[in-house]
Amino acid sequence: xxxxxxxxxxxxxxxxxxxxxxxxxxxxxxxxxxxxxxxxxxxxxxxxxxxxxxxxxxxxxxxxxxxxxxxxxxxxxxxxxxxxxxxxxxxxxxxxxxxxxxxxxxxxxxxxxxxxxxxxxxxxxxxxxxxxxxxxxxxxxxxxxxxxxxxxxxxxxxxxxxxxxxxxxxxxxxxxxxxxxxxxxxxxxxxxxxxxxxxxxxxxxxxxxxxxxxxxxxxxxxxxxxxxxxxxxxxxxxxxxxxxxxxxxxxxxxxxxxxxxxxxxxxxxxxxxxxxxxxxxxxxxxxxxxxxxxxxxxxxxxxxxxxxxxxxxxxxxxxxxxxxxxxxx
Length: 329
Ligand code: AMP
Known about the structure:
Layout: E1 5-12, H1 19-33, E2 38-45, H2 56-73, E3 80-84, H3 90-99, H4 104-108, H5 111-119, H6 126-140, E4 146-147, H7 154-171, E5 179-180, H8 212-220, H9 237-249, H10 251-262, H11 268-294, H12 297-326
Helix pairs in contact: 2-11, 3-6, 3-12, 6-7, 8-11, 9-10, 9-11
Adenosine monophosphate (AMP) binds near residues 21 and 188.
């Protein structure tokens, strides 16, 4: 029998999940979970939340909320190992070993590092600098080859590949070079017309827990134009709305709107109302599953405990092997 390929992905426990997380990461996680060729491990990246300013009580709650979001969205503990990153301490040990083959200059030049330093100039921490090294450990500790993440994570995956190559060449380890597993929603745009949908930018996102009225309100605030022109806008509020239409209502609906824009004109109130409905239709079953899970705290505890145990078993083997190869065992 052919050995299964491993998959690892995670979402930081920094707040409610939004459509960007859902389309960019969770949809890919679900696709791979359903594929019998893959063994899937999905973690909540709770320790990664320490790389930017955070509140202890909120983190304690968020890490559990993301597990509930995973389960509500369809991740299945019978098919995937679902766990909290901080429960598998071997990730941090491996990250330290990996930091010995990683230069400071390389980390400082990553666009994600520069962005975060700009956002939080007083939290320019070693943990932030080391984020991609810990992410490499998260992936390589399971010898994962496929990583369903949004396109913003590409530079981090490049770091993981480089670390794998260096470790293999220097110490004779057998890490694969992991690659991104892309979904149609690999870049979900911001509702504000610029950049990506992100929980750290107010007004940019729609949360998975939003009801129809909230979705309508958030879309109502998205910037538009007169609705007519000789050329379709390639960036900005309208372009972003059309991307969301394509993602939730399909490319045919997008083309219809585009044709209207170039001829009789586009009515944004109607477009937004229909888009809100389509988004809500997709989120409704996730929200009802979530309500059921909130009433079953013992079940959620069980999923977390059993995920940690399974993940640790695999992680310990890798760390043991690496320690020996490094001359530490
Ligand atoms: P984060 O919230 O930064 O931990 O991101 C969790 C996952 O969601 C990662 O795989 C990201 O690439 C993905 N993600 C976050 N925002 C977006 C977005 N706007 N479009 C597509 N994927 C995203």
